[in-house]
Amino acid sequence: MRKLFFSAALLWAAAAGAQMPNDGFVMSRGELCTVAGFGYSTWTHYWEGERLRNNLNIGRFTSKAFMPMLGYGVSKKLNLFAGAAYINNTSDAGTMAGQRGWQDFSAAFKYELIGFKNKNHQFKLFGGAGFSAPLTNYIPDYLPYSIGSGSRTANARLIAHHVFQHHFFATAQSGYTYRRNIKLQRMSYFTDRQVESNEMAIPNLVDASLQVGYTSKNFRAAVHYAAMRSLAGTDIRRNDMPLPANRMNNDRVGVYALWWLPILKGLGVHATVEQSVSGRNTGKAFTATTGVQYVFVPFKKKNNATAQ
Question: How many Cα atoms within 13 Å fall on the side-chain side of residue 190?
Answer without folding.
Answer: 6
